[in-house]
Model the fold of this input.
Amino acid sequence: MNNFSGVGRLTRDPELRYTPQGTGVANFTLAIDRPFKSESGEQQTDFIRCVAFGKRAETIANYVKKGHRFGITGRVQTGSYQDKDGKTIYTTDIAVNDFTFLESKNTQGGNAQQGNPFNADAPQVDLTGDDSLPF
Done:
């Protein structure tokens, strides 16, 4: 079983690019607070790298910005690449399967019934059967 779900805030606007085949790829990082504080009382936070493909990527890039609270589900995927010095860099990312718009940075605890800013603007996107996913 390989499942991840988390709620956090985006650390910056999603980066949208396209593969040579035209598939959208969005990269973003979620800052997710740990459920405890350090011994000195400071909040501990994990920064989770995420990637979305196809319609998901385009929707996320168009409607979610830095500071927005955002929920995702997905799977953990690992990879590696060679940096400019020839050193192998290992990566761990969450491949997004589903997501939920929660609130913008300026909204306090809103949801779709109580004036969530995403409710009016966010399209209803059918993400089932997305054959353009590269996996």
Notes: The radius of gyration is 16 Å. The chain is about 10% helix and 50% strand. Residues 18 and 54 are 9 Å apart (CA to CA).
